[in-house]
Design brief:
The protein is α/β, with parallel strands linked by helices. The strands form 2 sheets. It has a 7-stranded mixed beta sheet with strand order 6-2-1-7-8-10-9. α6 links the parallel β1 and β2. α1 runs parallel beside α3 and α5 packs across α6. The chain starts with 11 loop residues before the first helix and ends in a 5-residue tail after the last strand. Bound molecules: S-adenosylmethionine. The site of S-adenosylmethionine has 24 residues, from loops.
Length: about 300
């Protein structure tokens, strides 16, 4: 290890090596527009590790002892911007149309389970938003189609025999920890209206803490979307604002994996600036009032 305070120069070939390694490990592709960001983060990690060349940093990353540092580097390269109730039009489509269809279909099949996956969940706001919307959709469904039995008091968030699981996954351990903790500052609450604040949050000091029953519906776990083994049997997958950091071949591979991770007739949501257009023929677009989703088509493989 060196102790030099001189800023090491990143050569073209070192940059290529590191770019390829990051791509291979997590699918993130740094094109010319984003190389500056990559260089900046690499400089910081090099300093932190007290190494004096990027080649030695690369050697560390590919070594057995470097696994931790590799995870740290990937964390430093992710963009974690998110919010509650992000992209209202899409959420309306999910809440008012897709959940209605799913609940009705499942009820007829006497399958009372719903599994929603927020893939690339960042600090958890997307997953908690989805859980709140599922609760609302189930309550509204049973308001119009009452159950033949009285529910125990206090009424559970999810009416039995339904089981709702929201899986929230990410490649960054620090955002997963924040999601699991489930407390948010006022500046993160701007999209949460009065009604939702009252029902699902406690005010703890200056922060808003997700109430226990909602928290228990959301399960946080580490999953790298680059790997083959991803959570199966989902009814809906939200993977928003993640694919935009991947190149086209990697996007195609990910969509193919999501296809296999969805139940028949399941739905995939991608970000506002993302699309499945030209990347697959295995999904059909569902569009309503400026919200877009993609439904899995049953094709012979
Ligand atoms: C911009 S945030 C999007 C958060 C949320 N989905 C939303 O739209 O508000 C992107 C998230 O994707 C995660 N991510 C990036 N590459 C990933 C990968 N290969 N596997 C899993 N998560 C990844 C990042 O750590 C980050 O938290």
């Amino acid at each position: 290890m060196g102790t030099s305070s001189i800023t090491a120069q990143l050569t073209e070939s070192e940059l290529k090596l590191l770019q390829a390694l990051v791509y291979q490990e997590c699918g993130m592709h740094f094109d010319e527009r984003r190389t500056h960001f990559l260089q900046d983060r690499l400089q910081r990690r090099l300093k932190e590790c007290q190494l004096d060349s990027f080649y030695s940093y690369y050697r560390l990353l590919i070594s057995k002892e470097g696994k931790r540092e590799l995870a740290r580097l990937l964390e430093n390269l992710t963009v974690n911007e998110t919010s509650f109730f992000r992209n209202k039009a899409q959420l309306e489509l999910f809440h008012k149309h897709i959940l209605e269809v799913l609940i009705h279909r499942k009820q007829q099949q006497r399958d009372y389970s719903l599994r929603i996956w927020s893939a690339g969940c960042s600090t958890g706001q997307e997953a908690y938003t989805l859980a709140m919307l599922v609760i609302d959709a189930l309550s509204y469904y049973y308001l119009r189609n009452p159950l033949p039995v009285d529910l125990p008091l206090p009424k559970p968030l999810v009416p039995p025999p339904w089981r709702v699981e929201v899986l929230a996954s990410d490649i960054s351990y620090s955002v997963l920890r924040a999601g699991q903790e489930g407390t948010y500052g006022e500046n993160q609450m701007s999209m949460v209206d009065y009604g939702y604040r009252l029902r699902y949050f406690d005010k703890v000091a200056e922060r808003y803490a997700i109430k226990k029953p909602l928290k228990e519906m959301v399960h946080f776990d580490f999953h790298n979307l680059k790997t083959e083994y991803l959570p199966q049997r989902n009814d809906v997958i939200f993977c928003r604002n993640v694919m935009m950091y991947f190149d086209e071949p990697e996007q195609k591979r990910l969509i193919e994996k999501f296809y296999r991770c969805l139940n028949a007739g399941g739905y995939l949501f991608v970000g506002h600036a993302e699309s499945l257009l030209g990347l697959t023929k295995k999904f059909q677009m569902v569009h309503k009032d400026s919200g877009t989703a993609y439904q899995r088509l049953e094709v012979r493989e």
